[in-house]
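Usage

Read records sequentially. Each one opens with the input sequence:
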Amino acid sequence: MADEEDPKEYRWETGYERTWESIKEDEEGLVESAIIEIIQKAKRKRQLKKRGHRRLGMMRHVYLVIDCSDSMSLPDLKPTRMLCTVKLLEIFIEEFFDQNPICQLGIIVMKDKRAEKLSELSGSARKHVRSLKEMNVNQGEPSLQNGLDLARQSLKMLPSHASREIVVIMSSLTTCDPTDILVTIDNLKKDGIRCSLVSLSAEIHVCRYLTEQTNGSYAAVLDGAHYRDQLMQHIDPPLANRTQENSLIKMGFPHVQHEEGKDPPLTMCMCHIDNTDEPSKLSTGGFNCPQCASKYCELPLECLSCGLTLVSAPHLARSYHHLFPIGNFIECPFKQQTDKCYACQKIFTDSAADKTIYRCQKCQQYFCMDCDIFIHETLHTCVGCATTK
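and closes with the structure output:
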């Protein structure tokens, strides 16, 4: 009777879902999430594959191609696929530029059988996050071919030493393309553009073929947590293509020019002159290009006047850990080697979660799985090696 007086959504549209499909019992009879376990094992597997002294594409130029068709309004990812995607992309963009400060990113949306640029290639995270708020679900079908062609037109003009990548977020099971998409895939392969795809629905054959031909990765998400994990995989720079050349890159390290005994003059920055959303304002601070003396309010970026790449020393230092990652920790069965994790001070027990602990090969300290993943994916510094001598 209460259901008739208070009509609600269908059962599968509310917070109650088929949760019994994603849980199982461990050896002790306790219920644990199977998906979380899958994610942790996948992270550990990717971590073991990382090796130092590899040739990576550090100067990355990445286009995010996002499906904005009507399928993005489905509520299987809460609250909808579109809102979940926007939330995760905001986190992804901030983390991408934190781990890859000398790289550039752009956004392309697919809707109504067309593709259009939401933001150009740029090193400004604020610009891309602001552009994401302009995305909305539009009635119609996506065109994967138009999205790939639009990204390819910009990426193929980049120098040969640059890493060219496309990351597609596909929600629809269909794509409406004007011509043969296999021709576009062949052109992407010839140009050395790496294409990866994250599917919010089922696996699609043409998408799998696209990633295989361009040496990209393919993933179909299970839930929101798995979606975030698959998206965050694209933060680390990929292995350089064989067609990618080695080249010395000229960079400038600007500094604030200030004469002693004088107040700095009020000037405008170059990065906001043509920006209608954030118009340029007179200010005394800023970074001056060492080649043409143009003023900018943030780094890194490419000088609009002379084309010089402007960075700071910490930006290059943050990219250093990709080339020389921390050595993998050794898995050890818990047999009272130590009573707690050295990082988070968690007390080890005989539970299923603590049956395997991890030991650093240098400092010989023990860590739990969560700290092992955090050290290798976020901190990039062993806590034991940094605090013990």
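Summary fields computed downstream for this record:
- Residues 52-235 form a domain with the Rossmann fold fold (CATH 3.40.50.410).
- The CA atoms of residues 4 and 67 lie 37 Å apart.
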